[in-house]
Design brief:
By secondary structure, the protein is an alpha+beta fold. The protein has an eight-stranded antiparallel β-sheet with strand order 1-2-3-4-5-6-7-8. The termini are far apart.
Length: 162
Amino acid sequence: MSRNLFLANAFALAVGLTSAAAMAADPATPAKPAAKPAAAAPAKKAPPKKAEATLAQADQAQLDAAERTLYGPYECEFNQKIDVSINPKFPGYVDVAFGKKLFTMKPVSSSTGALRLEDVKGVTLLLQIANKSMLMDTKAGQRLVDNCVHEKQRAAAAAAGK
């Protein structure tokens, strides 16, 4: 009996395999998509350039305030430094470097005579008065650096002290 059982199982297996092969060859049965060949590593491309921000054209009041700005290096407390320069792309705007950061600022005259350099992104403010300047973080409401003195401010303070 075991021989008959063996033959019956072998026959059933053969029929099953034949049916599976017939189904695979049947065009009505969807075939698995072929695996895609591995793509070659793409050549490294330069990162896409960020769209350059455009700033509003400076009006006459802003241009006048930019003329009053003290450009160049400032020595600040705790041996820190800031550097104020003319923005090369946008007339009437100023760049302020502090540490590894560069802020583009809009000069604004105030009614008190102080000059405000307002960050176009609303993050910082450089306040310039007769004898010193300070860089503020407007979001946190605190000074980033204080007692920043430009050579012209130093000379004005020395002349006032005589």
